[in-house]
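Hi R.,

Quick one: here's the YjbH domain-containing protein sequence you asked about.
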Amino acid sequence: MKKNSYLLSCLAIAVSSACHAEVLTYPDPLGSSQSDFGGTGLLQMPNARIAPEGEFSVNYRDNDQYRFYSTSVALFPWLEGTIRYTDVRTRKYSQWEDFSGDQSYKDKSFDFKLRLWEEGYWLPQVAFGKRDIAGTGLFDGEYLVASKQAGPFDFTLGMAWGYAGNAGNITNPFCRVSDKYCHRAESHDAGDISFSDIFRGPASIFGGIEYQTPWNPLRLKLEYDGNNYQNDFAGKLPQASHFNVGAVYRAASWADLNLSYERGNTLMFGFTLRTNFNDLRPALRDTPKPAYQPAPESEGLQYTTVANQLTALKYNAGFDAPEIQLRDKTLYMSGQQYKYRDSREAVDRANRILVNNLPQGVEKISVTQKREHMAMVTTETDVASLRKQLAGTAPGQSEPLQQQRVEAEDLSAFGRGYRIREDRFSYSFNPTLSQSLGGPEDFYMFQLGLMSSARYWFTDHLLLDGGIFTNIYNNYDKFKSSLLPADSTLPRVRTHIRDYVRN
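And here's the predicted structure, written out as tokens:
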């Protein structure tokens, strides 16, 4: 009996530990995921969801007719944008083999989704979206869609016009307003913005259900497709069913794997890689700001004190070749700030370093940021106000810091102060990658190389700067010397670049 009790106790502990480990591995359900076209949605159809603000996704989907390469970003909680390249596997890039070889057709498009109503306890989330805004309009269309969550289920119902509504399973309600809404242009000229056809042409009701399984990394999808695929650019596609089913598996917090069965006869697979710009943090472990520890004021600048300040200005505040001068009742500091994107951080650190060891009678600190020995901006700070802010004040008695940006002042006109000399000679080696997408010779053209650079300052106003590029590898041999047919009367426009990169 004791042995059985012991085994049951061990089993209970093991199950508890396994459940705890699973919770740690997958703390949250998936939530919204990317559609086949990119952007949050079901499979072929969209939903009203928008990814968390700041989320950036890179997507790939593949089936027999299309490959979709897309990136999607949630710019705001209410706005999402998508850029997509589509590889039409059943069509050639052009009918001239000398022009584009056997490359398949490529199409570039842009989408957006705008949240109109945020989900409440009773009411669904509502969104309006537009696919393929500009260009040839292969997937041009718009939709109004609503989504409502109920427990592990997320229900979607919407109406689509254009590509996603090609089945025409309902009469376009706008046809009752005007006959012009009953027809839609079948194609657009490259570069056109296709808002002129909004809410025109065939319309369809679509919908779907997403189910968050008890196993957090797995989410299932079922949708009713509003398209009949009879007018696809890839050709008339057979459709055995309007119902599409799929699954999303979260392999990691930054990666989803997708598998679906669509039109009753087609397998679609792909993946999504994601990050969130709002969650990004610099990898650099920054040194803390200098603490406010004012020393007794000295008579003038002391060599040892200034040497310590210059070192701190270089390595804590991020000023290269810092220089300190004292004139009248102002302490001047200048240098080239390289460490912080927000220059106010560098100025704040410089002020802290300087105010801790001030000569007698200093009433103002002036910090000048330079670029290539040229003064760019000067920030002046009142010493008394700075001391009050750093020392802290009682609640309700705080005062704004008396600080202002003024016209940049070049201190070299007043002679040299104490400084850390800049290295007159410097050099660097940087790997480079030049690339282009969507060309007729090949979809992806690139050149990998090494840029070797060197510079020498003869004086503060005379610089010799140069570099040598070394090619490592490229596929520019696919470039053709000219894309113009021999009988073309069009003038050459920027096409000599092909001859340049080949030679």
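The chain has three domains: 29-279, 304-419, 425-502.

Cheers,
M.
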